[in-house]
Amino acid sequence: MLIIEDLKVEVGDTEILQNVNLHVPPGETHILFGPNGSGKTSLMMTIMGFSGYKVTGGKITFKGEDVTYMPIHERARLGIGVLFQRPPTINGLSTRRMVEICAGGKKVDVDALSRTLRFDSFIERDVNHNLSGGEIKRSELLQLSAQQPDLLLLDEPESGVDLESIALLGDSINSLLNRGIKRQSPCHTTIMERTPKSALVITHTGHILDYITADKGQVLYKGKLRCSRNAREILKWIREYGYEECVECSA
Ligand SMILES: Nc1ncnc2c1ncn2[C@@H]1O[C@H](COP(=O)(O)OP(=O)(O)OP(=O)(O)O)[C@@H](O)[C@H]1O
C-alpha cells in the first residue's frame, strides 16, 4: 500500500528526515512513536504532499504509483487521507460543505454521519471555528468518514480528547479501517468483502491502542526510523526506559 524508500526531507534549510524506510502493507495499521520534534508530523505532511516539506532524496510509492512529487489533491483522490494534529480554522466554509467536498461526488448522509460522531450540533459551523480539542478531532474524523481513504494518516487522534470520547474515536477509526463492500457472488448470495485499508498513527500516550489493532510499531528518533516491532512492547519500553534506551536497544 505505502512504500517509503530512503526518504530525505528538508524544512527550510534543515534536514528533518534522513533515509526513512517504511512499508505499510494493505490492511495493516502501524503506530509511529517518537519524542517531540523527531519528525513524525513532517513525515505525514510529506506523505500527503504539503508544501514546505522538500523531498531531497528517496521515493514514496502508494498503491504502486510514485507519488513523491504528486500534488495533494491527486494523492487524496488516490486514497490518502489525513487527520491533522492542529487543523486550521476555515472561515466562510461550513463543516457540512467541507464534508460534502471530502466525499468527492459520492453520496453521503452528512446528518447520519455527524450524529454517529456526536457532531450534529456543530455541522453548520465554519470548519474548526470555536471548537474544543475533542470536537475538532470529531470534525476531522467526520471528513475522513466522507472521504473513505484507503490509507489513513492519523496525527495524535487522541490528543485533547477525554477518555470517554477516545472510545468513540476508536470506533470511528475502526469502522473506517474495516468498511465492508457488498458484492454479489456468482450464486447470487450477498457477501461482504473487506477492502484492505491501512493506517499510520502517531501517538504519544498510546491510549488509542486500547481501541485499534496495531500490526507494528516504529520509533522515529532525530529524523531516523530506528525501531520496528510490536507497538505495545515499544510503548512499554518507552514508558519504562525512555526513548534513548529504546533507540539504543534497537541499534
Ligand atoms: N514549517 C517548519 N519550519 C521550520 N521548522 C519546522 C517546520 N515544521 C517542523 N519543523 C521542525 O522540524 C522538526 C520536526 O517537527 P515535527 O512537527 O515533524 O515533529 P514531531 O515529531 O511531530 O513533534 P511533536 O511530537 O512535538 O508533534 C522540529 O524541530 C520542528 O521545529
TrEMBL record:
Output one GO MF annotation: ATP hydrolysis activity
A Pfam family annotated for this UniProt entry: ABC_tran
User: ABC transporter domain: from which residue to which, for each copy?
Assistant: 2-247
In terms of SUPFAM superfamilies, this protein maps to: P-loop containing nucleoside triphosphate hydrolases (SSF52540)
Keywords, A to Z, come to: ATP-binding, Nucleotide-binding
Query: What family is this?
Result: Belongs to the ABC transporter superfamily. Ycf16 family.
What is the name listed in the Swiss-Prot or TrEMBL entry for this protein?
SufC
